[in-house]
Automatic annotation (TrEMBL), chain A:
Taxonomic classification: Eukaryota, Metazoa, Chordata, Craniata, Vertebrata
Role description: Regulator of endoplasmic reticulum secretion that acts as a key determinant of brain size. Required for secretion of extracellular matrix proteins. Required for correct brain development by depositing sufficient extracellular matrix proteins for tissue integrity and the proliferation of neural progenitors. Acts as a regulator of the unfolded protein response (UPR).
InterPro entries found in the cross-reference section: Yos1 (IPR013880)
GO cellular component, one term: COPII-coated ER to Golgi transport vesicle
TM spans (from-to): 6-23, 61-81
Family: Belongs to the YOS1 family.
Alphabetical keyword list: Membrane, Protein transport, Transmembrane, Transmembrane helix, Transport
Protein name (database record): Immediate early response 3-interacting protein 1
UniProtKB/TrEMBL annotation, chain B:
Stated name of the protein: Protein YIF1
Keywords (A to Z) from UniProt: Endoplasmic reticulum, Golgi apparatus, Membrane, Protein transport, Transmembrane, Transmembrane helix, Transport
GO BP field: endoplasmic reticulum to Golgi vesicle-mediated transport; protein transport
Family: Belongs to the YIF1 family.
Organism field: Zoarces viviparus (Viviparous eelpout)
Topology of the protein relative to the lipid bilayer: Multi-pass membrane protein
GO terms under cellular component: COPII-coated ER to Golgi transport vesicle; endoplasmic reticulum membrane; endoplasmic reticulum-Golgi intermediate compartment; Golgi membrane
Biased composition (Polar residues): 1-10
Function comment: Has a role in transport between endoplasmic reticulum and Golgi.
Primary subcellular site in the record, as a coarse category: endoplasmic reticulum
Amino acid sequence: MAFTLYSLIQTAILCINAIAVLHEERFLSKFGFGVEQGVGGFGDDPGVKAQVLSLIRSVRTVMRVPLILVNSASIVLLLLFG
Amino acid sequence: MDYTPTQSGFRQRKLQPNMRQRNSSADGLEGSQLFEDTSGAAHGLQTGNQQAGPQAAGFTGQSILSDPMSNLAMAYGSSLASQGREMVDKNLDRFIPISKMKYYFAVDTVYVGKKLGLLVFPYMHENWEVRYQQDTPVAPRFDVNAPDLYIPAMGFITYVLVAGLALGTQNRFSPELLGVQASSAFVWLIMEVLAVLLSLYLVTANTDLTTIDLLAFSGYKYVGMIIGVVAGLLFGRPAYYLSLLWCCAAIFVFMIRTLRLKLLSDAAAEGRLVRGTRNQLRMYLTMSIAAAQPIFMYWLTYHLIR
């Protein structure tokens, strides 16, 4: 299986894009990941679900602008160089 | 021509290094520069230092007066160089923590020998804890349980070379394949470390395992892979399977015993059954990290032995 570092970068961009496009209202609330069940307790043990939720939310917040830049750059590069 | 005994010995000593340095900086000039071609002096000054240039042009005939200019140029150049080096060091330290890396390479031969023995036969070792010294772990040189990066790095390089050798015996070798093998093994390593980091985050394990520690632990499997491939090359497929099986079991036990102390809570680490989803999740996590090692070992080597 011939992986290169370039394919790793591609995978990373695709995965982060996938996490960033999950919409809260339309999709996540169907799975019980909605807005109203947010941070919850500050107890000792957030649990896996709360961690996943905060991960998704933080990826959306932090990576929004860099993703825009990286995606536009890769669109331009792919158009130019195939 | 002019660096004659008319000048004092002190001046002459000071002038020699100047000329040598000007030789190294002014590449375009040919000829024996040691005999102070002063037009060469002005040329060297102009390439070296812009601000002293116009002033030096007026002094072309006088080697004595060109001294302070060349000194100035030298001082300016060397201060620029040291500033540049400082800036590079500071920025590099932000991305790759060099001081922390030095800890992982502080190994010696005895440690490497013992660690390799542990990786292949971990069943007799009893005390798996890392010794601490005032809140920082002891360097690998002094404690065989401490993770290091020397063995994984050497193992990776050796794996790439052995893979090239194995492909060569099957007449499938070409130099690009070495690069392909290296990059795909590296990518798998990075993905494994990222997956472990992600699962550690999801399970909220409060450990002191750093990323570099995880990199070190994931790199220990290269030793087993190399042993398997070399045995397969020397003695054929049954030997490959046997040695790979042995090394897989050894790495599995090694990882479980090492990670148990770091990931699980103290009570569970000692073997007592502790209820609670949290400990259960951590136990599953430890098991899956350890089980992923043999899978990767097989995955990365089976195509080398046909």
